[in-house]
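Here is the promised in-class demo. Please do not try to memorize the tokens; focus on the logic of going from shape to residues.
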């Protein structure tokens, strides 16, 4: 898992762990929702909350591939996880290996058995592909939370752009054009999986209730301002959900490129639905989601 641990990344990590279905080789961190030192500390805290001491954490890129960093404090709070674990002391050590190098090592060792779950900007993977381009033929699949395709105009950074791609569009462009098996879990489907206070209350009395309630409070207030209802999109957990159960999403292979020049649409994921460019499909985009089944499974897994 490659994360920029804000609130939904934290929930995705817990969901992945509690699914008991994944062999998580490691977690790599990347600058994104908040600066890298916050991201890494948040990731260690979430693993501690889960009682998970065996998953190594590899710190990654401090800044984007080319551009200046942008962050989302207004959504994720001052520390990235709504200050929900302020009193927790981190004791788990970090790994010495740089995140991109760990991706390279994992690809060489596990080859097609390796799935990369990317729920932050794609800087670490772009750096890995730059250093060792041969790994593009080794990695099994890459599942990315990012972009907005069919619902262009409903972005969350620019009208046409989603945060993870916008935060490092150059890195995304590199990754999209390397011939990897990519599925893009975009805002088109993640905006259909909204967690409400009712979902949170179903966790009452369970291990993660206090964290989920505290962490999502400000996130839900942001949703209230944006949608007129207290709710928050489970962007990153849905990406994990697709890895657990591919039948959750309806996908279609298309040619997708990333805009890196226009100030009006920087970071836009442009999908050639009609094949006007005459280029081969390089990304599986998402056209539909079984939101009810996903939300039920997510709450059930976190509830233990």
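The designed amino acids, position by position:
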């Amino acid at each position: 898992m490659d994360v920029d641990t804000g609130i939904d990344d934290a929930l995705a990590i817990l969901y992945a762990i509690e699914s008991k279905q994944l062999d998580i080789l490691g977690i790599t961190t990347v600058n994104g929702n908040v600066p890298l030192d916050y991201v890494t500390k948040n990731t260690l805290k979430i693993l501690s909350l889960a009682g998970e001491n065996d998953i190594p954490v590899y710190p990654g890129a401090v800044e984007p591939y080319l551009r200046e960093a942008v962050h989302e404090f207004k959504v994720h709070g001052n520390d990235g996880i709504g200050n929900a674990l302020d009193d927790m002391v981190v004791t788990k050590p970090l790994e010495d290996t740089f995140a991109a190098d760990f991706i390279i090592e994992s690809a060489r060792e596990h080859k097609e058995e390796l799935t990369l779950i990317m729920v932050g900007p794609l800087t670490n993977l772009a750096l890995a592909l730059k250093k060792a381009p041969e790994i593009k033929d080794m990695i099994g699949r890459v599942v990315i939370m990012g972009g907005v395709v069919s619902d262009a105009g409903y972005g969350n950074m620019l009208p046409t752009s989603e945060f993870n791609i916008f935060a490092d569009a150059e890195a995304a462009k590199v990754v999209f054009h390397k011939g990897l098996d990519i599925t893009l879990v975009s805002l088109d489907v993640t905006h259909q999986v909204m967690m409400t206070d009712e979902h949170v209350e179903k966790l009452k009395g369970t291990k993660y209730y206090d964290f989920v309630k505290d962490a999502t409070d400000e996130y839900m207030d942001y949703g209230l301002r944006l949608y007129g209802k207290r709710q928050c999109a489970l962007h990153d957990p849905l990406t994990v959900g697709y890895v657990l159960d591919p039948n959750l999403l309806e996908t279609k292979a298309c040619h997708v490129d990333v805009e890196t020049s226009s100030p009006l649409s920087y970071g836009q994921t442009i999908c050639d639905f009609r094949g006007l460019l005459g280029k081969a499909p390089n990304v599986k985009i998402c056209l539909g989601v079984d939101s009810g089944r996903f939300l039920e499974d997510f709450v059930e897994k976190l509830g233990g």
